[in-house]
Design goal:
This protein is α/β, with parallel strands linked by helices and 154 residues long. The chain contains four helices and seven strands, in the order E-H-E-H-E-E-H-E-H-E-E. The protein has a seven-stranded mixed β-sheet, sandwiched between helices.
């Protein structure tokens, strides 16, 4: 949350929300949060965690098949990119970038470890984003176990 380029946002989208831990934090600084996950059990837990927030909408969806309706001021792409092959990841993130309002931020956060479940390494995800997103880079931070990068729609 400290890496967000702005203090508050109107509409936010969080694909791959898992059990909603970050979703609940986003609800505190966003007027409305739309969150999705491909796993029904994760969506149910996220809904339970965020039940007190009237500004949060969580539903089950596969980002590779369904983009959310509307436009956003913030897109959080966290711990998700390494599950897609590079060409598909490029298509998904391009489509997401076009969902940003002018001045909207795209924030990517990925673990830098190795996992058999991952198709790509976190660095590969961020390198692809840096080279293909039609957004202005705001820079980022690299830590021992994870990487954060931010971009803005002009």
């Amino acid at each position: 949350m400290e890496a967000l380029p702005q203090f508050s946002y109107g509409r936010a989208f969080e694909p791959g929300c898992s059990v909603g831990e970050l979703t609940a934090q986003l609800a505190e600084v966003c007027g409305h949060v739309t969150a999705t996950d491909v796993a029904p059990s994760a969506v149910e837990r996220a809904r339970q965690r965020c039940a007190a927030f009237v500004n949060v909408e969580i539903y089950c969806a596969d980002l590779a098949l369904l983009m959310p309706a509307g436009r956003f001021d913030l897109i959080i792409f966290s711990e998700l990119g390494y599950y897609f092959p590079m060409p598909m990841l490029g298509r998904i993130t391009q489509a997401l970038a076009h969902k940003l309002n002018p001045g909207g931020d795209f924030v990517a956060v990925h673990w830098l470890g190795q996992s058999e479940d991952h198709v790509l390494h976190g660095d590969e995800v961020h390198d692809l984003l840096q080279n293909t997103l039609p957004l202005k880079s705001l820079g980022g931070e690299r830590h021992a176990g994870f990487r954060i990068d931010c971009w803005r729609q002009s």
